[in-house]
Amino acid sequence: MLAVHRPSSAVSNGDSVQIPMMIASFQKRFPSLSRDTTAARFHTHEVGPNQCCSAVVQEISAPISTVWSVVRRFDNPQAYKHFLKSCSVIGGDGGNVGSLRQVHVVSGLPAGSSTERLDILDDERHVISFSVVGGDHRLSNYRSLLSSLFQHLHPSPISGTVVVESYVVDVPQGNTKEETCDFVDVIVRCNLQSLAKIAENSAAEVMKKTSMR
Fold first, then answer.
1. Which range is least confidently modeled, 5-19, 71-85, 163-177?
2. Has UniProt tagged this entry with the keyword Membrane (predicted)?
3. What is the fold of 2-211?
4. Residues 108-121: pLDDT tens digits?
């Protein structure tokens, strides 16, 4: 199950937007979000007058440890982001805050490469955040934050995960805020759907091996 929500305030006037206010509309479908304090602490973006902001929520039928093992790899985003064809760590070791990576985008998209900085990597709270600091693309000042939280899926024996990814980005010249958010939402949505497929397949393999013992 995946959902997208975009607050009207984030695509009109410059303001400080708290993503938990956006996520409130998801809480009936994702009860775990109503108990999560991580969203209130981390999913807050300062949105300027020429920026837009949005959030995507993805439910994954896999343990949080499985999901987090994929998304925490700042040095290997192409593992689930299929619009990326390669990644090179160009600063730091790729696992510490301040590390830089250069990613190259697949052909067919209006971009060539992106230089990105790791801003947050919190293994305890399962939060990762990065900022775009350069590259050949039109998404200037892009900042993304992804958090994962545990939920129990009844009656499934497999624990589940709810992933929230929010972002803020400059609106390119010649585009509207709505157009920009529509474009980025598609990218984020595809990434999270890919993440769900990879994590769920991995969890299923583990369950299969366990049942054969």
1. 5-19
2. yes
3. Alpha-D-Glucose-1,6-Bisphosphate; Chain A, domain 4 (3.30.530)
4. 777 889 999 999 99
